[in-house]
Amino acid sequence: MAYLVVAIIDDIDDCHPVMDAWEEAGAGGVTILESSGIGRIRQSQIRDDFPILPSLHEILRNKERHHRTLFSVVETEEEVQALVKAARSVLGDFNQPDTGFLFVIALHQVFGLETPKRDLRDTL
Questions:
Q1: CATH number of the structural domain spanning residue 7
Q2: What are phi and psi of 92, to 5 degrees?
């Protein structure tokens, strides 16, 4: 059975260290999304009406706050535990405020996981 490991990271500066830790723990790939929860939306004024050339003052005055959501599909429970341990090594206890949260979902079917890995240097 495969598993989806998802970490919503509160501080975007922690994103790359967690991603690196997951790769070191054996994640075959990590996908990163910019995300924002309802609490953050309510704390800040989100705007989608920026002019084509906004001033720096305007951008900073209306700064949106975002999370980063990382996810990876792994094949074993041992790999799940390795990713959880790796995330905790960077972020600490997820029960602390302003850390984020992590969850795991069992997947019944996964397609494309066995795709041969490419060397990213070949694409440069």
A1: 3.30.70.120
A2: 80, -155
Q: For the chain, how far is it from start to end, CA to CA, in angstroms?
A: 34
Is the pLDDT at 61 greater than 70, yes or no? Answer: no
Residue 119 lies in a domain: no
Q: Is residue 38 part of a domain?
A: yes
State pLDDT tens for residues 42-58. 665 555 555 555 566 55
- The pLDDT tens digits of the residues spanning 3-44 come to 999 999 988 899 999 999 999 999 989 999 988 776 655 665
Q: 122: Cβ–Cβ under 8 A, 6 or more apart, which residues? A: none
> Which residue is associated with the tokens 């970490």?
7
pTM, whole model, 2 decimals?
0.73
The number of folded domains in the chain is: 1
Provide the CA 38 distance to its chain's centre, in angstroms: 17
Q: Are strands 31-35 and 100-107 parallel, antiparallel or unpaired?
A: unpaired
- 42 within some domain: yes
32 within a domain of the structure (yes/no): yes
**φ/ψ of residue 83, rounded to 5:** -70, -40
